[in-house]
Please model this.
Amino acid sequence: MDFIYYLFSVIISIGISAQKSPTVVPFSLENHSIYMYCKVNDSAHVKFLFDTGADGSVINVNSKKKLNLKVDGTSENQGSNGTNTVEYSSHNTVQFGNIDKKDVLLTLIPYHSANFDGVFGTDLMQGKIVEIDYHKNEIRFYEENTTTLDLSGYEKMKLHLIDNYPAIESTITVNSKEYSGIFGLDSGADDALTIAAPFAKKNELAKVMKKIGKATAQGSDGSVYEMPVVICPSIQFAQKYLYNVPVTLSGSTEGMDATEKMAGFFGNQFLKRFNTIIDFKNQFIYFKLNKNLYSEFK
Model:
């Protein structure tokens, strides 16, 4: 019996050790946005904006020469306020940590004064479970079949993929009236929440929410536009409530901010308050409040 017990223990031990450790990539949080470093083809490490609101990855036109990319086509880019024709480079390799993503299409977009070389989109996240840890400033990429995730303290939610855009159900409350919908998760935006134009217009939110100012935004299509900033008294998100959040109301007639498929988009000034685990394959997402909860909204 002792021999059988020992053999059983060895088998269990081998099974546990066979679980692959996650790839850990450090990040910096700058002006609410997440930045990480990657290699493109044979380049040195370059700075990428980690963007759950982008379904494709991007290179800033200003960094094109640095990376010596071969342009081999054009496509239509849909920004938050419109569309434009852009160049792209295909068949690239992007390396982050010990992960090599091959045959990556990189769109070239002018970000003008932006201080980053590229945008790390969900095309590079797919195929992994992605954990964003604001306590350690780490992004961890797990195999999809991992059993090593620690989900204690997390709230599990259904992950909706709206045209490849990750989104969840959420509710805002104004004057005791609830407005519910599907909201996109856009870590590449540095605001708290933008309400899509059709949802704002349908519910006449400009009339019921207190205006406190205006914001200027620039979309990936190159357009620059102003939006009113209002105060949202209450937002229910992952079974938690956040209060007196500054929200922008879009008036766009084209682009993502004009979509009727989503009520709006949470930016990283809001999302950074939650450690997040994204399971694209099983379409679940997990949130846990972190040290940024009481940081000031600006």
